[in-house]
């Protein structure tokens, strides 16, 4: 094992609580050594659990879903909207729909920069793609490809700090997406429900849970406060923070389900528009 350079950045991973969590997360008995790995040969580890399984599954899942999203947004601009027999279903990739005459490409490209930036800078997705695509690190206590560590202080990774601003944009997007849900439940001016209504509701509902479980939102409502009872609007803030905290515990799950949901929402609208699906109407 090589001698390890000292690390000048602290992530808090050395605290007793974090150490317990790490031990739980890797299945290693408390007190047993899992090896430090920083500064070790790339891929070297003392771990015996299948630590490589999650990065591989994440890589496959992201390649499939992001591949589909790219196809739909860039090449699939002909079937983003299904308007027939009272139905008005808009693909979530194309919402809000903006298509000025001077723009020669798919209109999705004008709006997707915001949801894309929100996901790309998300704390969970960062962990996922750093592990799965950059192998940096591939897992806790697994040797890294680089010997230096600059955190996210240099270009392009310093841009990850824009996450909170993408959050603000995502909150605005939710308004448009919920408007699309209302349209999807409106048939010829009256309340109704079809298969597409449910697909669009699921997509927007999961996106809402993902957005409201965001770490930055949790900080926005409850962070930077010494005590809630001394803060302005402390009571409502504490309640909101409590709800966001409950959702935040499952942020990874919401990240995956919402990505799946938005792809399914687009897929459903696309299949209806192409005439592949006959959309059922329930009432
Ligand atoms: Fe994942 Fe904000 S941390 S969306």
Could you please describe the fold and organization of this structure?
With 283 residues, the chain is mainly α. It has one domain. The protein is built from 10 helices and 4 strands; from the N terminus they run H-H-E-E-H-H-H-H-E-E-H-H-H-H. The chain has helices at residues 16-26, 53-75, 108-111, 113-120, 123-132, 163-184, 195-212, 215-222, 234-248, 251-274, and strands at residues 81-84, 87-90, 186-187, 190-191. The strands form 2 sheets. The chain has a two-stranded antiparallel ribbon. The protein has a two-stranded antiparallel ribbon with strand order 3-4. Residues 1-25 have low confidence and may be disordered. FE2/S2 (inorganic) cluster (FES) binds at residues 122-124, 163, 167, 214-216, 251.
Write the layout of secondary structure elements.
Elements: H1 16-26, H2 53-75, E1 81-84, E2 87-90, H3 108-111, H4 113-120, H5 123-132, H6 163-184, E3 186-187, E4 190-191, H7 195-212, H8 215-222, H9 234-248, H10 251-274
Helix pairs in contact: 2-5, 2-10, 4-6, 6-7, 7-10, 8-9
Bound molecules: FE2/S2 (inorganic) cluster (FES).
Quick structural overview:
By secondary structure, this protein is mostly helical. The chain contains ten helices and four strands.
């Amino acid at each position: 094992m090589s001698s390890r350079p000292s690390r000048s950045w602290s992530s808090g991973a050395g605290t007793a609580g974090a150490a317990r969590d790490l031990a739980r997360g890797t299945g290693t008995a408390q007190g047993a050594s899992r090896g430090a790995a920083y500064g070790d040969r790339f891929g070297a580890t003392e771990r015996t659990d299948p630590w490589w399984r999650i990065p591989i599954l994440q890589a496959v899942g992201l390649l499939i879903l992001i591949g589909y999203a790219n196809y739909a947004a860039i090449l699939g601009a002909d079937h983003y909207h299904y308007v027939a027999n009272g139905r008005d279903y808009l693909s979530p990739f194309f919402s809000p729909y903006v298509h000025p005459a001077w723009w020669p490409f798919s209109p999705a490209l004008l709006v997707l920069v915001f949801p894309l930036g929100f996901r790309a800078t998300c704390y969970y997705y960062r962990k996922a793609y750093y592990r799965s695509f950059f192998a940096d690190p591939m897992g806790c206590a697994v040797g890294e490809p680089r010997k230096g560590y600059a955190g996210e202080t240099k270009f392009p990774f310093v841009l990850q700090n824009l996450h909170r601003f993408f959050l603000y944009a995502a909150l605005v997007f939710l308004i448009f997406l919920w408007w699309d849900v209302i349209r999807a439940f409106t048939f010829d001016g009256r309340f109704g429900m079809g298969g597409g209504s449910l697909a669009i509701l699921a997509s927007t509902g999961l996106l809402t849970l993902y957005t409201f479980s965001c770490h930055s939102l949790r900080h926005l409502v409850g962070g930077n406060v010494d005590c809630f009872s001394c803060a302005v609007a402390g009571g409502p803030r504490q309640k909101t923070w409590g709800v966001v905290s409950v959702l935040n515990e499952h942020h990874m799950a919401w990240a995956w389900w919402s990505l799946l949901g938005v792809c399914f929402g687009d897929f459903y609208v696309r299949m209806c528009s192409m005439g592949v699906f006959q959309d059922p109407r329930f009432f």
